[in-house]
Automatic annotation (TrEMBL):
The keyword Mitochondrion does not apply. It comes from Bhargavaea ullalensis. The lineage of its organism: Bacteria, Bacillati, Bacillota, Bacilli, Bacillales. Gene3D superfamilies: 2.30.30.100, Bira Bifunctional Protein, Domain 2, Winged helix-like DNA-binding domain superfamily/Winged helix DNA-binding domain. Biotin binds at residues 120, 191. Residues 73-264 form the BPL/LPL catalytic domain. GO terms for molecular function: biotin--[biotin carboxyl-carrier protein] ligase activity. It is an enzyme of class 6 (ligase). Its EC number is 6.3.4.15. Keywords: ATP-binding, Biotin, DNA-binding, Ligase, Nucleotide-binding, Repressor, Transcription, Transcription regulation. This is Bifunctional ligase/repressor BirA. Acts both as a biotin--[acetyl-CoA-carboxylase] ligase and a repressor. Pfam families: BPL_C, BPL_LplA_LipB, HTH_11.
Amino acid sequence: MDSTVKDKESLLARLLEAGGEPLSGQAIADEAGVSRTAVWKWIKELEEEGYRIRSVRKKGYVLEGVPDILTPELIRKELGGDEFVGRILHFDSVESTMPIAHREAQEGAADGTVIIAEEQTSGKGRLARPWTSAAGKGIWMSVILTPDIPPHKAPQFTLIAAVSVCRAIRETAGVEARIKWPNDLLAGGRKVTGILTELQADPDRVKAIIIGIGINVNQDPGDFPESLQPIATSLKIQSGQKVDRAKLAAGVLRRLGECSRLYLEKGFPPIKKMWEEDAITIGRRVKAVTVRETLTGTAVGITEEGVLELRLDDGTIRGIYSADIELQD
Ligand code: BTN
């Protein structure tokens, strides 16, 4: 990744690329076609944003520390040259990243566009439930995907997202997360991630799939509202250490790109296999609370459509399309 310096953002990208080596203020000014004072102002602005930059006499500027924020530059540095991720739009505070992603998709955003926020003041969960998204504590992002598939296959992308996040969490934070059908990730028996998939589609073709991913990363127990404390957890609580959010966001996006590609090349079977390896639900006795009824049985697998198959006590198999699942054993 070689960037020409032309503004504060590209200067930051160059400082990150330099990996601790000094960058000459004069060389930057010449490259950008601006004065040294303009470069100095960009440096001051970056310092105000929390970057620690040392000025070494006769050598230039050295980046010594980065703030805990999810800027596109930091995520891209962690991603290397991953081709899947397109534009990354980063916000300090939004109501929810979902409507922003919908708007971007309607305006023709490309596959792999990412909307990410430090804080959501009105985060959305499944079944219109609220999603608590405290500032700087988690990863709250929506990813726009534009696969050429019919709408009935779109739920498979919830499973693709669950597998991607589950594996990225294991790789980056070392936490053994497991998937609870359809889209919750649990760690230590509590919810650490929620995934919300929404669709823009014509009758026969998907226009865009918006995958909303909420990961509880660096909360302490007291950071959750009291009602959530018995059921929610964070990666920090589970691992005992603070997790680098930019690394984790990059890990999730890299995995999402890989799994989407795998799916588009080989179809659903390899994803189903990965999902079943990561799932906590399969083989367990579960209670499924649907809008119409409550069923108890053993979860035996998922279908091509991502439907959960439940073997009831009388031996019949029932497909569960949408439900809250409680593990019974
Ligand atoms: C759930 O488990 O109910 C799904 C939670 C999904 C939360 C994410 S956070 C990013 C995106 N923006 C939202 O408002 N919701 C999703």
